[in-house]
Amino acid sequence: xxxxxxxxxxxxxxxxxxxxxxxxxxxxxxxxxxxxxxxxxxxxxxxxxxxxxxxxxxxxxxxxxxxxxxxxxxxxxxxxxxxxxxxxxxxxxxxxxxxxxxxxxxxxxxxxxxxxxxxxxxxxxxxxxxxxxxxxxxxxxxxxxxxxxxxxxxxxxxxxxxxxxxxxxxxxxxxxxxxxxxxxxxxxxxxxxxxxxxxxxxxxxxxxxxxxxxxxxxxxxxxxxxxxxxxxxxxxxxxxxxxxxxxx
Length: 248
Known about the structure:
- The chain is mainly β.
- It has one domain: Jelly Rolls.
- It has two helices and 15 strands.
- It has helices at residues 2-18, 241-245; strands at residues 27-32, 41-45, 47-48, 56-58, 74-79, 86-93, 101-112, 129-136, 142-147, 150-155, 171-176, 190-191, 195-204, 211-219, 224-239.
- The strands form three sheets. Strands 1, 4, 5, 7, 12, 13 and 15 form a seven-stranded antiparallel beta sheet that branches. A five-stranded antiparallel beta sheet has the order 2-6-14-8-11, with no helix packed on it.
- Strand 9 (142-147) and strand 10 form a beta hairpin.
């Protein structure tokens, strides 16, 4: 009789043990930067102080807005004198579940002036400009440090975007800015093949249910690079605590 009673107690308790809480709903961000910046702002890192004068970034204007022009979108440009310039865009994503891990499924359209079979100083202007995606709980901050070469600006810890083609803890390399069949002069812009990638390493939201999405180029080409970010889509997929610890 005691065994029967114990069995009934265990059966009654089983659903509470086995039924983990649902992680929440998927959330989509669809930004058409050919029309407006939609909350995205420019970010530069890994550069020597004097390089700031060569940075150009400007969102599309109402006069230039177009869904067809390869030279509309959020234009971001820099001169990679440091041989490791990172330049891109970041945006806070709000309205998510608090303290929840999310995988980020990216879909990116951009235009570039560089072909896929070009040579340049330090590396190919197309193939050695590496596209990276990632995110963080807190807003990534760029800070000034002192080196033998002068002032150097880089991301403050703990944000880790990696180095050129190498992944970092918070960002992954997914493509480059080569345009198949494009000329090497860099005078006209063409569409980079659409970048689609699910970054398996989740990002955790803060207590208010927000996180930061970051996309950019980590350059191994020692010259001027400018691109138009045209469309950025992100599907944020909630995952359990266990899946966040073992994402692969």
